[in-house]
Amino acid sequence: MDAILGANNTLFDYGLVLLVYAGLFVAMRQVSPRIEPEFKRSFVILLVVWAVGVFIADYVFYLLGIMSFMPWLNTFIHAFIWIGLCLGFLYSVSYGKRPLWELLVLFAVYSFVIKVTEHGVLGTWEFDHFFFIDGNLAYIVGWSLVDALYPVGSALVLALAARLTQGIIVPRLSLSRG
Question: In whole angstroms, what is the distance from residue 52 CA to residue 33 CA?
Fold first, then answer.
């Protein structure tokens, strides 16, 4: 059961993490309460690609020794609910409205809050280094900075998807406002 929930974790602990996800999702909706209809297909592509990709990558990175093991339920909710759904929503309502540098900061901060929460409640994100930088805080900050690249990665994913299917919006990345 430790492989699924994590050592000493309960479903109540996961409920607390999901409450934080929900609170941050409400904050994200302040940009726009819903995804524009013409971007919904792009959102679905991002949700699927990011969720499945992160779910697989987390385990592969653990096997490679660059990430700590995350219990399967944590990996699932982190990949599908947080990265796929929540960050996908944030990207879908904010692309083109803010300069790229602001998006990078926004995604890093949101990701940092989630990693600190998961670390505190579930005991995950516990590695003592990020590549060659010592310290658990370096590990949490490092992976949060990787998550900050979500807008750039999403633009690349959508550019590739647009070559394969119609109706995909490919946002233009700009250092200045939309």
Answer: 25
Which residues, at least 6 apart from 49, have a Cβ–Cβ distance to it below 8 Å? 157, 161
pLDDT of residue 177: 62
Give 27-78 pLDDT, tens digit per residue.
999 888 899 999 999 999 999 999 999 999 999 999 999 999 999 999 999 9
Question: What are the residue ranges spanned by the domains of the chain?
Answer: 37-164
Q: What is the DSSP string of the chain?
A: -HHHH-TT--HHHHHHHHHHHHHHHHHHTTT-SS--GGGHHHHHHHHHHHHHHHHHHHHHHHHHTSS----HHHHHIIIIIIIIIIIHHHHHHHTTTS-HHHHHHHHHHHHHHHHHHHHHHH--S--SEETTEESHHHHHHHHHHHHTTHHHHHHHHHHHHHHHSSS---PPP-SS--
What radius of gyration do the chain's Cα atoms show?
Answer: 16
